[in-house]
Amino acid sequence: RAESVLKQGLSKYPDHTGSARLLARLLVSRGQHAEAIVQLESALDGATQDADYHALLAGLYQHNGNPAGAARHYTEALALNPGRGEWWMGLGISREQTGNTSAAGESYRKALKYPLDAALQDFISTRLQLINHHNPAGQVTG
User: Fold this and answer.
1) pTM to 2 decimals?
2) Closest by CA position to 9, among listed 21, 35, 84
């Protein structure tokens, strides 16, 4: 029922980001990640100043194997709200997956400037060690 109401509302107000976000989260809860991306993309024009919206879309792109799309939306989210360590980490992962290890290392280092739980800090530290070991000059690879 909730899905029907949200879709009805979006048909009348396609840029309503609140409804699109709720519908996307509902779809994600059912494992329908690709459909959630479609819903978020369809209301993207209304989300120009919504960092959380871009971060949600970035995470979905990351989950669905589109690191370039994830990097684009993490960059948008961080331009609006640079104080989120998790988003810097997500950007680092995306950049690393696209072969841009130098930029990934930069993103990971920025992530460590913000409060993160110990597991995320450990993950980032490990990624930085691997990047530095395989690419000590910080050159972009790939």
Assistant:
1) 0.87
2) 21
Torsion of CA 9, 70, 88, 139, to 10 degrees: -160
pLDDT band at 141 (very low <50, low <70, confident <90, very high): very low
What is the C-alpha to C-alpha distance for residues 101 and 54, in angstroms, rounded to an integer? 23
> Contact at 8 Å (CB) between 39 and 23?
yes
Is residue 24 packed enough to be buried (19+ CB in 10 Å), middle (13-18) or exposed (0-12)?
Answer: buried
pLDDT tens digits, 91-125: 999 999 999 999 999 999 999 999 999 999 999 99
Q: Which of 124, 102, 104 shows the shortest CA–CA distance to 113? A: 124
Q: What is the pLDDT of residues 41-68, one digit of tens each?
A: 999 999 999 999 999 999 999 999 999 9
How far is residue 80's CA from residue 99's CA, in Å, rounded to a whole number? Answer: 25
CB-count burial class (<10 Å; 0-12, 13-18, 19+) for 134:
exposed
